[in-house]
Fold these 3 entries.
Entry 1:
Amino acid sequence: MLRLAVAAIAVMVTLPATAAEAPATGANVRSVTYTQGTYRQTGPHAWGEFDTSGKQTNAFVEDARDEWSVFLFDPARNVRVQIDLYRKKIRYTENGGSYADLYDVTGSAGAATANPPARPSPPLASSNGFWNNSPVRYGVGAAGGNLAGVLRGVEGGAISGQGDANLRCPEAARAVNGTWTGQWHQGQGGFPGLCLVRFEH
């Protein structure tokens, strides 16, 4: 009897993961729920917000994705939404203001594929020429310097220059409990800009 139970457990452990078991990430998420409703992808670059009865209340264009987030834009209201799966928050800004947490994410579902294509990780401080350096008063100086902790590129939204980086990167770093190093990279090819963030060991 014991051997039969052990054999059954072994079979269960060796079964391959199915698409339904794949966790939702920024790369593959298709819907998220919060207490008052749902955000759901409705087309290749289209999302809708739906209330608890299933009625669509708002429409969005998908701006960008990164490892943990999807960024949506509603041009009719000049509203932007970040679905942040790392912190499990839905964040909101309007008319170019700062993002603020709006809802807690209570559930999420990814695409029907167990292995979605992943966006390559951005180069970090060891890659000369990738990161732009801000003045010392905004960060810790040039890439490749003596930086303690772990460095990681964090999405910072639409960064087209130093002014955008100065506004967006400190907030992006605080949102993930890190510290902006003062370095940034302009978004290209439909991807958002990146901020080089330090995480303490």
Entry 2:
Amino acid sequence: MQVRDAVTADMEQVATIYAHYVETSVATFEEDPPPPGYWQKRLADLTGRELPFLVAESGGNIRGYAYASPWRPRPGYRYTVEDSVYVAPGQAGRGIGTALLKALLPACAESGARQVIAVIADSGSDASAALHRKFGFTDVGRLTGVGYKHGRWIDTALLQRDLT
């Protein structure tokens, strides 16, 4: 498996991976899967900001992806990013999330980020939080009932990692 910078040609597979989570989980509060064109624009925006968007590829297939996006739009937040890590369906437990986050954090630092925030939906699974804690993220807060999906209210956990 190779972790590399994402390119436009990857976005169709990225869209497919994300659609799985939109349709079957509360890992995202999105309710309608965005098309590949959305992801192409997202890639262009993030790379234009010099923020990382990575994919894990094996055998010509994207097995997962990770990117950093601005935490908030106001200029005072410009040194803080939010990370997102998604692993393709059926690929969990193979070290893909670990490889992606391991590559993403130094790429965030290289982009000038000082803080990385993870916003993790309380899905009943602790895998994402455990992955982030493995890389030194600490729990910094919980937002109660801030999301609504699949007929239930969902909390989010906030984890933070200092890159300095």
Entry 3:
Amino acid sequence: MPKTESPTARALSDAEKKELLSVLQRRTGKKIEAHFAEDDNLLGGAVVRVGSTVYDGSVREQLNALREQLEAE
């Protein structure tokens, strides 16, 4: 069973943890054991590591992607 490290910008409610875990299990097709933690360096969102794969849903990453898109135009 893959383990995840899931730093988030703020503490998640039980319902939010359950939803995030459900989405990750659907995306990976595997049952996942999750470990949640707060990260004061995140502006918002979450960064999730499943094995060696990182899913970066942080605000910082979204802003970086937007900047790269605008620079390419």
